[in-house]
Write a structure and sequence with these properties.
heterodimer; A: alpha+beta; B: mainly alpha; Rna Polymerase Sigma Factor, Chain: A; 8 helices
Amino acid sequence: MKEKIEDNYDLSDFLLDDVFVRKVRDESCSDDYIAELKARFPAQVKDIDMAIQVLNVMGNEYVCSTQRQRQKVWSGILGALSIKKSDRIDIPFVSGKKTRLIRNIFRIAASFILIVGLGSIAIYYIRSNEAKIASIDRFASSTKVDYKKTELILSNGKKIEVSSGDSRISYSSDGKNVNINDTSSVIQPVKEMQFNQMIVPYGKYASLILSDGTKVWLNSGSRMIYPPVFTGKQREVYLQGEGYFEVAKNKQMPFYVKTDRFKVKVLGTKFDVQAYGKDNIYTALLLEGKVSLSFGQKLKMSSEDVILKQSERGALSENSNKFSVEKVEHPGNLIAWTQGFINFDEETLESLLNRISIYYNINIQMRSGRGFDGRGGDEIPYRYSKTLRRVLFVGYQTNVIQHHEHPIQKRYYPDDC
Amino acid sequence: MTPKKTHFQKTYQLEWNAFRIDGNMNALSVIYEANFDLLLNYGHKFCREDSVIEDAIQNIFTNLIRSRGKLTEISNVKQYLMIAQRNELFELISKSRTTVSTENFSDIIFTPEYSVEEKIVAHEGQTRIKNFLKVSLQKLTSHQQEALYLKYDMDLSYEDISKILNISVESCRTAIYRAIKSIRADVESLRERNIHILFSILRTVFK
C-alpha cells in the first residue's frame, strides 16, 4: 500500500488508502482535510469527491440497541445458565423481568395445549365423518410417513426398503406377487379394503406397474396409496406429491387419482398429477386422452367438473376452489423426470429452480442482478448434497439436466412409445 | 461516522482476563454492554429478524460462561465475538430452514442495506450517483461486500478481517482490491456514458 497521496492517485487508490479513509470518516477533521487535499491535487477533485460518495454509500445503517433489549438478552443468558436470582448481582442493571427460559416454558406449554386441543378436535372431526369419507382417504390421513427412504409398504404392514435411486415395482394381475427391481419378489395376501403404499423420498423416484397394467411414475417426495388389486366399480389411488400415469384402458372401471384437494377421473390416458400440499402446488397435466377434474368429497361447494384437453394443465391456486386451465407449450418437458431428466425449453431460470427446489425439498435463493443470465458456461454453485451438486453444476445452456443420482440409460418399459 | 463506533478501537483484554481467570461477571457484562450493538449490527447484515440475532448473542455469552475454564488469552475480544456471532448465526439460520444459497463463498448470505442519505444529497444528480453506487456495491459478491463492510464500516485490519472470514490475509486483500476496482470500473463507465450523452447533445445543437 502506498503511504502518501500522489498525483497519479485514482478513485481506487483513494479508497484503498487507510489514512484517507480514516480522515474522511472522522467527523471532527474531515472537512478541513478534504479541502486541503482538493487544493493540493486539483486534478483529482472528481476522484476525491467520488471516493467520499462511495464511502458514504458504503456507510451502513447503524442500529442502536435499547437498554431494554440488552437487559432482555442478558437475563436470557443468566436464565439459560439458571443462575440463582440472589447471585445475579454483578450486572449493571437489574433483571426483574421474566427470563427467556420461563417464556420458553410458557411457549412450550401453550403449544402443547394447542396441539392436544387441535388433535382432539381433529379426532372428533374424523370420527364423525368416518362414514362419509372413502376408505382410501381415511387410510391416507391415518398413516403418516416421513420421506426418508424409498419404501414399499404391503397390505400386511410389512415394510420393504428399496435401496436404488430409481426403484421399479410391478404387480401381478392378482396383486399377490410383487416384483422389485427385477431382482426380488414378495408374495402378499390380498384382502379387500387393504392398501399398499409406495413412498419416494426427495431426490429419488420410482416407477410401478399396478395389477391392472397401469403404469405409474412417482417423483421426488411422493407417496401413493393403492389397493394391491382393484375391485368394485372403480379404480382408486391416492397421491401426495407428483405422479405420471399411463392408465390401462377399462371402460367398466374408471380410474381415479385422488389428492387431498381434488381428484382426476380417467378412462384411459396419459397424464401427470402434482399434489405437493406443503408448497401448495396442485396441478394436473394431460398428455393424451381425456380426463376430468373435480373436487374431493370435502369440497362439495363447487359442483363444476373441468375437462382437460391434450397439452392442457389445470391448476388449483391456494385460496380458490376453481381450476385454472392453460395450454402448455412443451408438455414433454414437464414429465421428463420420468426418464431421469429435467428438461427445459424457453423456461426461465426461476421456474426451473422452482422445480428443482420441489424435487429436492430445499429453498434455492437467487440473488437478483448478479451473475447468472442463462448464457453458456455459467454455473450455479450451491452447497447442499452431492446429488444436487451434479444437478446444478451443469450449465444452463445444455438444456438437459440429469435429475437423479443414477442416470437412466434407457427407458424401463420396452413396449413404450 | 457515529460516535458509538469509538469503542471499536478498544480490545477489552483486561476485562476478558478478569472474566476468564477470576470469573468476574462484572467484567463480562462490560464486554457485553460494549459489544452488543456491534454484534447486533453485524448480525443484521445476515438476518433481518431481531429475535434470531438476540438468540445468537445469548448463545455466545452463555457458551462463554459455560466454558470459561477452556478460554485462552486473546488479543482482540471484538474479533473473537464477531467470529462467534457469525458461527452462531449460521447455526441458527441453517437450523431454522433448509436454504441453499447460490453463493459458494459464504455459508450465510451477507446482505447489507446501503443507505442513501437523502438529507445530505441536495439535488437530483447526486441521488442518481448514489443510487448508481448502491447498485454497483450490490453487484459485488457476498464475500466482497462483507469484506468491505468489515474494513470500512467496522474499521478492522486485514488481519482481523481474514480471521473472521476464515481466509488468508492475501486473499482478503485481493477481495477488497478487486471490489474497489469493480466499483472504479463502474464509475468510469458511468462517466463515459455521460460524456457520450454530452457529445450527442452538442452534436444536435451545432448541426
